[in-house]
């Protein structure tokens, strides 16, 4: 959530920066009139309360002196009713202001590229080498089905479309990748392992920015408590410290968490209908950081390097792009995407997003820190990044390491976790 005081004092700058997202945010000027009315009401209420207190004091004097205080009592009662009405009006305006701010995205960082959509994202660097096939490479769903490690038909029978059953070495590959990524980040990256809830409440979804803007993409439970299936470990992870004040000496806090995530994929009809690129249920290893404002961008670069290291260790070809203003996520000020090369698409596809939300989520979730015991609490900065998407890593391995005989080589870094160097159909038969 944006700081109302900052919006009030910098409305032209706020609108100019938000407009770089590709929409017109001039309607935010309405916040100024609402805020002006709110502050006027607060002043009126305080003046009436002060007058009421003074009159109440006089009533006491009148009664002690035997004077008639009926007129003063009627005035106090009238003021009491008016204060009640003004309080209700103030509450209504404050809810209106809050709702408008909840629907307003974060300010893009001043230095990110300006663009309309993902076609204007800026490539930063590339890593790894694309395989030189001597045969026509197959898409991952064909590789997986021929190896009998991916079953889409039975998954659809059990649930619906956009689900998959991993079988045999496919299930082992998914599990091996999770363990490899968790070990890599915990042992070499210095992240503390967390095992988080798969169900989150409405306050958690609101704090990280999923609600109210993206309610259609969430799986809401039929439950009177307002619960949702976790759409990403970012939600339970960031909300670990909701409504807390952290000691600056404990920052930055770095967490790594594996969760299964659930998304409706609203708005993606017709996209990636084959395979496991875009599923309703998928596994992801998530990196989370809580930092001071002055160190958050240094920590962002470190987080990017930590996620990038997974692709390097797995010897997968990838590139890093900086997200332009028009493609930026709702809650984020700056984002890097890591995209892995997929031969079947003959292009790069996102496998990780690494982002700095600055104080946007912290303000929504009331997450603060104190520089010392006497210091005033400040909003900290939150960061999150995929470290990385497990299912898409499976896709990348099946496609980039496929062999002419239909088998798939296992990346060297993963072989100790897999217990084999090769995926082939007769391994589990």
Question: What would your notes on this structure say?
Answer:
This protein is of the alpha+beta class. The chain is built from 13 helices and 17 strands. The strands form five sheets. Strands 1-10-11-12-15-9-8-4 form an eight-stranded mixed sheet. A three-stranded mixed sheet has the order 7-13-14, with no helix packed on it. It has a two-stranded antiparallel ribbon with strand order 2-3. α7 crosses α12. It starts with a helix and ends in a 6-residue tail after the last strand. The mean pLDDT is 95.
Number of discrete helical segments: 13
Using only C-alpha atoms, the radius of gyration works out to 27 Å
User: Which structural category fits the helices and strands?
Assistant: alpha+beta
Overall pLDDT metric: 95
How large a portion of the residues is in β-strands, by DSSP E?
15-25%
Mass-distribution shape: elongated
Largest sheet composition: 8 strands, mixed
Distance between the termini: 55 Å
Return residue spans where pLDDT drops below 50 for at least 5 consecutive residues: none
Question: What's the helical proportion of residues?
Answer: 25-40%
Would you list the SSEs in sequence order as H and E? HHHHEHEHEHEEHEHEEEHEEEHEEEHEHE
Strand order of the largest sheet: 1-10-11-12-15-9-8-4
């Amino acid at each position: 959530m944006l700081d109302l005081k900052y919006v009030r004092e910098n409305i032209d700058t706020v609108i100019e920066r938000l407009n770089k997202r590709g929409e017109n945010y001039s309607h935010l000027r309405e916040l100024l009139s609402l805020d002006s009315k709110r502050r006027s009401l607060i002043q009126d209420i305080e003046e009436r309360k002060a007058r009421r207190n003074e009159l109440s004091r006089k009533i006491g004097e009148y009664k002690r002196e035997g004077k008639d205080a009926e007129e003063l009592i009627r005035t106090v009662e009238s003021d009491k009713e008016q204060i009640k009405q003004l309080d209700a009006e103030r509450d209504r305006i404050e809810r209106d202001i809050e709702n408008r701010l909840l629907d307003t995205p974060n300010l893009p960082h001043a230095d990110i590229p300006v663009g309309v959509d993902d076609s204007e994202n800026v490539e930063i660097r590339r890593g790894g080498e694309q395989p030189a096939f001597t045969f026509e490479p197959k898409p991952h769903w064909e590789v997986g089905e021929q190896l009998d490690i991916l079953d889409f038909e039975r998954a659809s029978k059990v649930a619906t479309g956009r689900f998959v059953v991993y079988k045999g070495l496919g299930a082992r590959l998914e599990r091996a990748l999770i363990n490899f990524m968790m070990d890599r980040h915990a042992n070499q990256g210095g992240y503390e392992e967390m095992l988080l809830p798969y169900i989150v409440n409405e306050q958690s979804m609101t704090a990280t920015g999923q609600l109210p803007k993206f309610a259609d993409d969430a799986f809401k439970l039929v439950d009177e408590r307002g619960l949702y299936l976790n759409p990403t470990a970012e939600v339970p992870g960031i909300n670990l410290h909701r409504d807390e004040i952290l000691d600056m000496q404990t920052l930055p806090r770095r967490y790594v968490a594996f969760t299964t995530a659930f998304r409706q994929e609203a708005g993606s009809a017709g996209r990636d209908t084959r395979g496991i690129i875009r599923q309703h249920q998928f596994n992801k290893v998530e990196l989370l950081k809580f930092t001071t404002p002055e160190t958050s961008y240094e920590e962002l670069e470190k987080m990017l390097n930590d996620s990038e290291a997974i692709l390097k260790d797995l010897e997968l070809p990838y590139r890093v792009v900086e997200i332009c203003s028009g493609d930026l996520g709702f809650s984020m000020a700056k984002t890097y995407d890591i995209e892995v090369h997929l031969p079947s698409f003959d292009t790069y596809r996102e496998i990780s997003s690494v982002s700095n939300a600055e104080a946007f989520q912290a303000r929504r979730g009331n997450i603060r820190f104190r520089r010392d015991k006497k210091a005033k609490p400040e909003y900290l900065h939150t960061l999150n990044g995929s470290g990385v998407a497990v299912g898409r890593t499976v896709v990348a391995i099946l496609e980039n390491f496929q062999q002419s005989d239909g088998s798939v080589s296992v990346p060297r870094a993963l072989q100790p976790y897999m217990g084999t160097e090769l995926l082939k159909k007769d391994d589990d038969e």
